[in-house]
Write a structure and sequence with these properties.
- With 142 residues, the chain is of the alpha+beta class.
- It has one domain: Aminopeptidase, CATH 3.40.630.
- It contains four helices and five strands.
- The protein has a five-stranded mixed sheet, with helices on both faces.
- The longest helix has 15 residues.
- It is globular, with a radius of gyration of 15 Å.
- The N and C termini lie far apart (49 Å).
C-alpha cells in the first residue's frame, strides 16, 4: 500500500472514487483540478498494484466548530473503497492529511460526518477525533 499526493494523471480514477463518496457532485473535474493548484488544499491517494483504492482531501480553514486555534486542518473528504476497508488504509490517509496540516502550522484538525453516516462517525472516533457538535443546516430560496 502506497499513500501519496494526488497527481494530475490520477484524475480519471480519482473522480470515480469521489463519485462513490459524493454521488451528486463527486465527478467535478474542475473542482479536482483546482484542488491540485491551491496551496491551502491537498489530496492524498492510497494506491495498491496501480489502482487507487482510497483518498483524503484536506484543507486549511480559518476556524472549525469546537476548535480554538487558526488555521485548522479540515478533512473535507475521506473514502476507502469497501473491499479495502478494515486494513488501516483510512488511518494512513488521515495521517498523511494530519502531517500536511501540521506542516502548515495547524495545531488542531477537524472534520464532519453526516448524521446518518454511522460508519464514518465510528471511523473518526477510532482515530481519536471527538464529537464536538451536532448541526442541522437550513436554506431557503429567495
Amino acid at each position: 500500500m502506497h499513500i501519496r499526493p494526488l497527481g494530475l494523471e490520477d484524475v480519471p480514477a480519482y473522480l470515480s472514487l469521489r463519485t462513490s463518496l459524493w454521488p451528486g457532485g463527486g465527478a467535478d473535474r474542475e473542482e479536482v483540478e483546482g484542488l491540485l493548484s491551491r496551496s491551502d488544499q491537498a489530496a492524498f491517494v492510497a494506491e495498491e498494484a496501480g489502482a487507487l483504492v482510497g483518498f483524503v482531501e484536506v484543507a486549511l480553514r480559518p476556524y472549525a466548530e469546537g476548535c480554538t486555534t487558526s488555521p485548522v486542518g479540515y478533512l473535507e473528504g475521506w473514502y476507502v473503497a469497501p473491499a479495502w476497508r478494515g486494513q488501516g488504509i483510512g488511518r494512513l490517509l488521515v495521517e498523511a492529511a494530519e502531517d500536511w496540516a501540521r506542516a502548515r502550522g495547524c495545531r488542531e484538525m477537524a472534520s464532519d460526518a453526516e448524521p446518518g453516516n454511522l460508519l464514518g462517525q465510528e471511523a473518526h472516533r477510532r482515530l481519536g477525533y471527538q464529537e464536538v457538535e451536532r448541526l442541522i443546516c437550513f436554506r431557503k430560496d429567495l
